[in-house]
Amino acid sequence: MNQAMRPAKPRPSWGLWAAIIGVVGGMTLWSAWGVGLSATEFFCNIGGGGRLLRESWPPDFAFLPRLWGPFLETLQIALIGTVVGGILAIPVAVLAARPISPNRTTWFVDRNFMNVLRTMPDLFWAMLFAAAVGFGPLAGALALSVFTVAVVSKLFSESMESIDMNLPEAVRASGGTWLEMVRFSVLPQVWPQYASYVMYAFELNVRASMVLGLVGAGGIGMILNTQRASFEYERVTMIILMVLVAVLVIEQISIAVRRRLI
């Protein structure tokens, strides 16, 4: 192509970028001042962090055999929460997808219900269910089920909002019911994305299940909290390393599965 015919590249708006950086930087400094962050306090206490690192290394590998049972329980809690929450997320997502929802009222109610689920963190649900059904794996599984519904339904509904609507309209025009439209023309277009979202939720649940154990929701998090309270930092490091390796393995498996599905 002739040099003269090439479209001119848009010049970067340096003034706009400078304004954005200035606003973000100013808001950050204002936030730091508001919460009382102090660089002096940080550097004066950094020695405590070094002492904690020295006490945490090397990991207590002799403690590893005692972790297999709680860690297996953590995986089981994450799996139950993912499966139950993934199934419940399907109708929630269908009703929250605006082009698919049967009417505006249903869409509005379901969308706000989904927003409420996302507003509450998984730790809140764990504390709530622990108070309701007692401490243990059941509370963790219920909390992760709600968390999975919140995550998967949001992503899944957005996928359904971007599908080709010609096929659903053809099903309705030929006399098909709303359920037939969803079953035969909507869901087949988004099943691969749904499977990908469920795998992603399982990754999140494995991480979250360790945190939920800190509030008595079962799993290896309860062991972590006990060792931390006892200042057994070498054992804490061992637990963190074990979970880190497991999460990395699960993440790689999940990535491989998602690449085959999409």
UniProtKB/TrEMBL annotation:
SUPFAM superfamilies: MetI-like. It is a multi-pass membrane protein. It holds the Pfam family BPD_transp_1. GO terms for molecular function: ABC-type phosphonate transporter activity. InterPro entries: MetI-like (IPR000515), MetI-like_sf (IPR035906), PhnE/PtxC (IPR005769). Gene3D superfamilies: MetI-like (1.10.3720.10). This is Phosphonate ABC transporter, permease protein PhnE. It comes from Alkalisalibacterium limincola. The gene is phnE.
